[in-house]
């Protein structure tokens, strides 16, 4: 069976967007922690906040990695359905424009 190149393109675009989103989450958490480290230290909760922040970004990263893995394993079904409906919508617009 020959895979539609649009499936690969859609998967790659989604994988890139998800990876970028995880990178942004890491940056936001890192920046927030850096800006708040003084307040955390004064409140004697610096290790707790560092640990909680790491847990959050780890779980977020793990969830996105699992999602990418699942999408990669089942990409024909997931993206094939999208492409089917995109093709039907394109055909309907063409038919409406021709009428």
Largest sheet: none
Order of helices and strands: HHH
Number of domains: 1
The average pLDDT is: 93
Estimated helix fraction:
over 70%
Describe this structure in words.
The mean pLDDT is 93. This protein has helices spanning 5-42, 46-73, 75-98. The protein has one domain. It has 99 residues and is mainly α.
Topology:
Layout: H1 5-42, H2 46-73, H3 75-98
Give a quick summary of the entry.
With 99 residues, the protein is an all-alpha fold. The protein has 3 helices and no strands. It has helices at 5-42, 46-73, 75-98.
Q: What are the defining features of this structure?
A:
99 residues; mainly alpha; 3 helices; 91% helix; 0% strand
């Amino acid at each position: 069976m020959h895979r539609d190149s649009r499936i690969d393109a859609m998967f790659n675009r989604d994988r890139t967007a998800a990876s970028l989103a995880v990178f942004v989450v890491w940056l936001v958490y890192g920046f927030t922690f850096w800006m708040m480290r003084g307040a955390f230290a004064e409140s004697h909760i610096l290790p707790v906040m560092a640990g909680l922040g790491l847990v959050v970004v780890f779980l977020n990263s793990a969830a996105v990695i699992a999602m990418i893995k699942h999408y990669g394993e089942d990409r024909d079904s997931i993206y094939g359905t999208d492409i089917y409906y995109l093709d039907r919508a394109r055909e309907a617009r063409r038919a409406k424009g021709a009428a």
